[in-house]
Specification:
The protein is of the alpha+beta class and 107 residues long. The chain has one domain. 34% of the residues lie in helices and 22% in strands. It contains three helices and four strands, in the order ααβββαβ. The protein has a four-stranded mixed sheet, sandwiched between helices. β1 and β2 form a beta hairpin. The longest helix is centred in the middle third of the chain and has 16 residues. The radius of gyration is 13 Å and the shape is globular.
Length: 107
């Protein structure tokens, strides 16, 4: 994918997000409803992705009310599973744009 194609794809990803003051590229957000273990793993993944030069949004909110733990603008949603069941994750994934790849990390 060349630079222009990559930028256009990232724009497509960004267009799926809710327009609000909550979706910030590169900022870490804590969800107080998550366990400390969940948040620690999310922070660990966040740090590694930033180190590798990825553009990411934490707790990304989609227009259709879905919320992803980590959204990599290159097209991957990363879900951290700690207390969430596979069934709950399957329901959550239904709200995500179908062209995005889902990666789950169990804690």
């Amino acid at each position: 994918m060349n630079f222009l194609e990559k930028q256009n794809f990232r724009r497509k990803v960004l267009d799926t997000l809710k327009l609000s003051g909550t979706n910030h590229i590169g900022c870490f957000r804590i969800n107080l409803h998550n366990s400390p273990e969940h948040e620690n793993k999310k922070f660990e993944v966040y740090q590694e992705l930033l180190r590798l030069g990825h553009e990411i949004i934490i707790e990304a909110e989609f227009k259709n009310k879905g919320r992803a733990d980590i959204l990599d603008l290159d097209g991957t949603i990363i879900e951290i599973l700690h207390s969430e069941t596979e069934k709950e994750l399957k329901e959550k994934i239904k709200k995500y744009p179908s062209f995005l790849t889902i990666l789950k990390i169990k804690v």
